[in-house]
Design brief:
The chain is of the alpha/beta class. The protein contains 15 helices and five strands.
Length: about 325
């Protein structure tokens, strides 16, 4: 992943200068390889025979244990279920382990991903450890939502922003991975994250997006019934439903931009511009803003116990009302 080279340059410098941060906060969009970079740094820092560029050797006992996912000095913390919080029990178990010395003479690495999943109780417990960290331990916190982390935690971490600054690198990498069609669209859909773009390609998300937009357009023209579409949407898994809501949010945001005659470069869904422009010209701008806020709220509700069928129906009903009054 060539776009990670600048991040690795900083991390390898830490190793070569033996200036290992006690806590490191990796910040960047989803799907750009933050977890992979954290693992590379972890394995290299624990390696018994690192190479001149600080990269792990891949052959020593430490590397063998790491590759087998059995290294006693590598700890990975994540929510038990996607979208859930990292509870205080997980942090208590972690701090109990960290009270003991690392089993090997090198460093112990703790990776928390996503760190913004810490709830208030677990974040406070984690902060207490950060105030009095143990020896030869490096904490790596990974997030794409740094603002959700308490400022007291952020202030105790060295920041390492990760981004894809050169789109050409991302496109070249995707083509190497066999993504030969709609590369630009996939990168737009994934907010410039190559790994997510590859996943969307593998899952044929472009076809799903086309179907969703077609159904949404039919609702705007009163050519179908909201119950029929809501039933189809409700059959999607959680990941696909999250994508659906992101697409709706993007489309409404694009219509608002088009209403304000924004530059084409700011439009996310350029391939749908003509249809979005036609709708933007006849829809009430205040109504679009209100619907946009409602879609953001709906996405937040996706992780709750809300009835998804009813949520889909409400999204479509409000869209119909916006189009037909």
């Amino acid at each position: 992943m060539p776009w990670l080279q600048s991040g690795w340059s900083q991390l390898s410098l830490y190793i070569n200068q033996n200036r290992i941060p006690q806590a490191l906060l990796m910040i960047g969009n989803k799907g750009i390889g933050k977890q992979q970079l954290a693992e590379q740094f972890s394995q290299s820092l624990m390696c018994f025979s690192p190479q001149a560029d600080a990269m792990f050797c891949g052959k020593c006992q430490s590397c063998i244990l790491f590759n087998a996912k059995t290294h006693p000095d590598y700890i990975f913390i994540a929510p038990e279920e996607a979208g859930k919080a990292i509870g205080i029990d997980a942090v208590r178990q972690l701090t109990a382990k960290l009270a003991l010395k690392p089993q090997y003479e090198s460093y112990r690495l703790v990776v928390i991903n996503p760190a913004d999943s810490l709830n208030n109780a677990s974040a406070n417990a984690f902060l207490k450890y950060l105030e009095e960290p143990t020896e030869r331990t490096c904490l790596i916190l990974i997030t794409d939502k740094p603002s959700k982390l308490p400022a007291t935690i952020r202030s105790r971490c060295q920041k390492l922003p990760i981004s894809v600054s050169d789109e050409k690198l991302a496109k070249a990498w995707l083509k190497q991975q066999g993504v030969t069609e709609k590369v630009e669209l996939l990168l737009k859909m994934s907010q410039g994250s190559p790994l997510m773009a590859k996943q969307l390609f593998d899952e044929d998300a472009v076809s799903l997006r086309t179907d969703i937009f077609s159904q949404w357009l039919k609702m705007a023209k009163a050519e179908t019934n909201f119950v029929v579409i809501a039933e189809q949407w409700n059959k999607l898994d959680k990941a696909a439903m999250n994508l659906l809501l992101l697409w709706l949010i993007d489309w409404v945001a694009d219509m608002i931009k088009l209403s304000h005659h924004r530059d084409t470069a700011e439009i996310v869904s350029l391939d749908l511009k003509t249809s979005l422009q036609e709708m933007a010209e006849r829809l009430d701008l205040k109504g679009l803003y209100k619907y946009y806020d409602f879609l953001l709220l709906s996405r937040k509700r996706l992780d709750t116990q809300l009835n998804r069928q009813l949520m889909c129906e409400e999204i479509l009903i409000q869209w119909s009302v916006l189009n037909h009054g």
